[in-house]
Design a protein that fits this description.
Elements: H1 2-20, H2 23-49, H3 57-87, H4 91-94, H5 101-131, H6 140-167, H7 174-180, H8 200-203, H9 207-221, H10 226-256
Length: 265
């Protein structure tokens, strides 16, 4: 019996050391309960303060869910595709070929677009017979919202992929954690004004905030806000350039340090 407990304790120690050596894993454990608390706390506050909006809440919330999934899938489609190459230990083989890092980025974006369309399209069409919500009522604005959320998802995915190169597979949870980090403050299901005053300026640094505010403007006021679209486009261009630069820099460091052939925990 003592040998059984020793083996059990050895496994507990093994994974304890793994947790201790990986701050992304520790962050993930603490983050999800906090995320749920903040998100649903702000949703509850919004509906308590705006009871007159409840009649239109179903359509707005379902539209918000679909647009949020565009952002989530764009990020995951890029980061997970890159992560699959790491799982397969294939980065070294890829770059023995003439493939350039910039070409890898372009291919990851294209694959992300395909995966996002496959993921979101069935849900968008099912929303009509099941919930009487037709997201295409957003008109041409839907294309603008979709494009901006895709670009923001790509930027976050490139940043996460760069961190994976730097930190190894021990940071793979960042593929999911990174995008949800912004969910409570970007105004997906409620306006930015619901947030505490000190958080509102932070929210307006995110392109997705402009998109979701623009969505509510179309659905509630039947007005397309060009100023919000311009803000989202400008921030997206900035973030995409910065995150592409971070990824290329991390790639260069990984190549010089031989990490392309030694991706592990």
């Amino acid at each position: 019996m003592s040998g059984t407990w020793q083996r059990i304790w050895a496994m507990v120690l093994r994974h304890s050391y793994l947790l201790r050596s990986s701050w992304p894993r520790l962050l993930e454990l603490a983050y999800w309960p906090t995320f749920q608390l903040l998100l649903w706390g702000f949703i509850t506050t919004f509906f308590l303060q705006h009871s007159s909006w409840i009649a239109q809440a179903a359509g707005v919330l379902i539209s918000a869910v679909l647009l949020w999934d565009v952002l989530f899938r764009a990020n995951l489609g890029l980061a997970l595709t890159f992560l699959e190459e790491m799982w397969a230990r294939n980065l070294g083989q890829l770059f023995i070929s003439p493939l350039r890092p910039s070409e890898l980025i372009a291919s990851l974006m294209f694959i992300s677009l395909i995966r996002t369309l496959i993921s979101v399209t069935p849900a968008a069409f099912l929303a009509l017979p099941l919930f009487d919500v037709w997201v295409f009522d957003l008109g041409l604005g839907l294309a603008a919202f979709f494009f901006n959320l895709m670009v923001m998802g790509w930027a976050i995915g490139l940043l996460v992929s760069g961190l994976l190169l730097r930190l190894g597979l021990g940071a793979e949870s960042l593929c999911w954690l990174g995008i949800f980090l912004i969910a409570p403050i970007t105004g997906i299901y409620y306006p930015v004004e619901v947030l505490p005053d000190w958080l509102e300026p932070v929210a307006w640094t995110l392109p997705s905030t402009y998109v979701f505010e623009g969505m509510r403007s179309v659905l509630f006021d039947q007005v397309f806000r060009w100023d919000l679209l311009a803000g989202a486009v400008c921030l997206n261009l900035l973030y995409l350039l910065l995150c592409s630069g971070v990824f290329l820099w991390m790639f260069r460091v990984a190549r010089y340090q031989g990490k392309l052939l030694q991706q592990g925990e």
